[in-house]
Amino acid sequence: MTFNLSWACVLVGCISASLAGAYNLSDEFPPLWKESPGQFSDYSVENGKYIINPWNYSERIGMYKILLAQTARYFEKFAPEDEQNILWGLPIHHGWQYHSGRLADPTLRTDCGHDSGDPLCISVDSWWADLNYYLSTIPFLAAIDSGLMGVSADNVILLPPSKDQTNFCYNVSSCHSSFPEAMKMWNKFYKCAMSPSSSFDDLLKYMWDAMFHPWSLLVRIFRVGKNKPNVILL
Q1: Strand pairing class (156-158; 49-52)
Q2: Where would one find the signal peptide in this protein (predicted)?
Q3: Model-level pTM?
Q4: Helix (H, G, I), strand (E, B), or coil: what is residue 234?
């Protein structure tokens, strides 16, 4: 697999290519990509429902892995080997967050995300992790809602963090209720992707709208009490 790194930069807030080079991209995948879940059956199952812990890096990056696999066929007309799938920007950026330590507990009150404790833990106290939650869960759940993933919308449940549970949504219905505009925009993106007549420019427009329209609301939600960077990079 190869991907156009410039698209990855554009679609995660114009992050420079040098930022992506902050970790070794020699194998062209985010950290732990190959070891992470690649299908729903790799997750826990309870009462016929898939249970995903998005506060574990491996399980969150696995959501991206499934999303990329299920959308690959819609980008084949633009380039071979999924290299023009613009969704690649999302896991690439999340992998950089993990590698750079931005998903760890910035307060140091817990060992979440730190090498000395649980390195795969994603801290709810991390501003980066909280905002990324919506760049992972909403695209993922909207894809399920759009019929792309081969599972029922009622059969996937995300686990809540240890606190601040009301800041997040955990399944298709709760995300529609809490963030209806974001879900609607991602649904439009997937509808465009599934259309045989869609152009690459069409997909870029719909994805840009889906990613950035809700962020003013999300930044307000997570602004208080978080370890915020001086410049907002999504």
Answers
A1: parallel
A2: 1-22
A3: 0.84
A4: coil
